[in-house]
Amino acid sequence: MTRAIKLMNDQTPMTDAPAAKATPTLPDAQVVTAVKHYTDRLFSFRVTRPASLRFRSGEFVMIGLMGDPDPKTGKQRPLLRAYSIASPSWDEELEFYSIKVQDGPLTSKLQHVQVGDEIILRPKPVGTLVHDALLPGKRLWFFSTGTGFAPFASLLRDPETYELYDQVIVTHTCRDVAELTYGADLIESINTDELLVELIGEENLAKLVYYPTTTREQSPKMGRITDLLKDGTVFKDLGIEDGLSAETDRAMVCGSMGLNVDIKEILESHGLEEGANSDPKHYVVEKAFVG
Ligand code: A2P
Questions:
Q1: For residue 146, which atom of ligand 1 is closest to its CA?
Q2: Spacing, Cα 225 to ligand 1 middle (Å)
Q3: Is there an atom of ligand 1 within 6 Å of 221 CB?
Q4: pTM for the full model?
């Protein structure tokens, strides 16, 4: 039946066809391939990856949508924001994890994207949360709040992350348990998905420690990660006797402005110094992060 209908349509004279939808193809357009909503504040989506786009796990790109037409000129301009790529560099698609801000210029619209829609993606990846910006060390810490988990979702699926360290500790602080779901699902998939286990390697996965905390809803571990570091709870929980040191510990930080400032102070009080792509040191912070 389908085939008959198709043939019929193929033979339909063009003049009878409905007028084509007047959607101009966006510059640097990529097509949405999957969307998943976690809470009324959080969602993730996947898009096609430009064949020429190469990036290092942990980097970000500018993505967005066309803005509303200018009331005077009718011209539309792209509305772009920095988004960490949440998928690893080997993935054939790109994944993003986003906040939904009801009156936010971009995310108020972006939260409604559906499979088949187009988004704009400027293929110029940059960022500081890359292995090249850190000196060799023994323990790697990922400190995140909210959607700041995104670059770590990329790095945690990259075998190099584990090959460089003896232990990889990922902390994620959210308001409630539902907001931990994206990260918890990712950790679960890394440990159980056949393809990921094979790709990362069981020996490497044994190095992974997941430390989720909530601040506004009861969960097995309550409190801001900053407070849990300051009072020694994290070290006690993880059996780390000697605390943080510039000799052994490396850290990447991505989250709210408050987290960035507070973690910086804690890391520096233990002698760690901030690095950059051109000057690798003990820790790095993603300053382009908004959310
Ligand atoms: P809190 O509930 O105590 O504010 P948000 O959703 O507002 O981006 O926050 C995400 C998580 O980050 C929340 O659990 C929040 O805790 C926590 N948070 C906010 N500021 C800091 C900070 N300066 N240090 C550590 N965690 C923080």
A1: 10
A2: 9
A3: no
A4: 0.90
| Residue type at position 68 | D
Tokens standing for residue 117: 């829609």
Q: What distance in Å separates the CA atoms of residue 265 and residue 15, rounded to the nearest whole number?
A: 69
> From the CB of 258, is ligand 1 less than 6 Å away?
yes
Closest residue CA from atom 11 of ligand 1: 174
Which run of H or of E encompasses 258? helix 257-269
CA 161/CA 129 separation, integer angstroms: 12
What would the pLDDT profile of 252-272 be if each residue is shown by its tens digit? Answer: 999 999 999 999 999 999 999
pLDDT-based confidence at residue 9 (cuts at 50, 70, 90):
very low
Cα 46 from Cα 36, distance rounded (Å) = 9
CA of 234 to the centre of ligand 1 (A): 17
Of the candidates 101, 91, 109, the residue with the CA atom closest to the CA atom of residue 33? 91
3-state secondary structure of 1: coil
What pLDDT is recorded for position 291? Answer: 52
Distance 216 CA to ligand 1 centre (A): 9
Distance 255 CA to ligand 1 centre (A): 8
Residue for token pair 């390697």: 201
* Spatial distance between the Cα atoms of 252 and 184, rounded to a whole number of angstroms: 19
Q: Which amino acid is at 73?
A: T
